[in-house]
Amino acid sequence: MKVNKFLLFMIVAALTAIIAACGTEADDTNKDDSAAGKTPDKNTASAQDSAAEDLEGSVVIDGSGTVYPLMARLAEEYMINEQEGVSVEVSRAGTSAGFKKFLVENGTDFNDASRQIKDEEAAEADKLGIEVKELKVALDGLTFVINKDNDWANEMTPEQLVSIFLADGNVEKWSDINPEWPDEKINAMGPNENHGTYEFFYEKILDKQDMNSNVNLQQEYSTLVNLVSEDKNGIAFFGFGYYVNNQEKLQAVGVDFGNGPVEPALDTIAEDGAYADFTRPVFTYLNVNHAKEKPQVRDYAIYVMNNINKFAGETGFAPIPETEVKEVISFLEGLN
């Protein structure tokens, strides 16, 4: 019996030593984490919270073809790196056509826009009980592009550019602008009425004066790129991003606002910069009702604003001030 008691004592002692050692290792680990500024318990909780926030469902976006490359890029990043269970569908019907899909019962979650919402569109939202939030996402420079072989019209004044597109501009040939330029017909082009870029051009640049009926208006920006790239006498206008992505096919017109020609670029496109007269903000409009009802819509809106300036430059947009970004994020985080 004495031997058995001795063995039992040794076993208990060994177990006690093992338990003590494990406790010491845990304490050491906690001390190391504490020294590194870590809190293991909170990290574990955070991982659990993250898993609990995995979302599912869809986010539906339509609207501006100008804003499309930026929103499509953000959607791709979001689905790959943030929420694999969420499908973000981005289309590009054009700003005005997009608002028609946005301002209906069970409409789209976002409408990208290269102009601000119109009074009648806002009134329709009120009528339908849709709370709309404007999210300013970037700055764009209206860009005039010409054929690579055009070596005479690469610098113009705003007045000369406008005269090409005005109904009473009295300009049909390049020589009508400058007698030293070719006596050949100008083939002017641009996006059609579905696009906010058309409306911005008509309202802000043409000052609501009638556009020349000979201007070739197209639905697809890619069509405009191809038409100008194949026509030595072609000229078109659209957002800076479409020029940036097609510089091998086109050249941008430098615009002389009075202090020498300025080309649109990320460092000139600004509301108070050298290209200010042709700079405009672009937006996405959020259906706040949907954001409150569908967690993935609110989450995507927050993701967009947190990352908008990160991806603006690579898709041909200038960033917006961080103070504006933070204000919108604060609003979005307060939705419930």
TrEMBL record:
Entry-linked SUPFAM superfamilies: Periplasmic binding protein-like II (SSF53850)
This protein's UniProt keywords: Cell membrane, Lipoprotein, Membrane, Palmitate, Phosphate transport, Signal, Transport
Signal peptide region: 1-26
Keyword Aminoacyl-tRNA synthetase set for record: no
Subcellular location field: Cell membrane
Stored InterPro entries: PBP_domain, Phos-bd, Phosphate_ABC_transporter
PBP domain location: 56-305
Stretches with biased composition (Basic and acidic residues): 28-41
UniProt-listed PANTHER family: PERIPLASMIC PHOSPHATE BINDING COMPONENT OF PHOSPHATE ABC TRANSPORTER, PHOSPHATE-BINDING PROTEIN PSTS
Subunit and partners: The complex is composed of two ATP-binding proteins (PstB), two transmembrane proteins (PstC and PstA) and a solute-binding protein (PstS).
Function: Part of the ABC transporter complex PstSACB involved in phosphate import. Involved in the system for phosphate transport across the cytoplasmic membrane.
Name of the protein: Phosphate-binding protein
Organism encoding this protein: Sporosarcina oncorhynchi
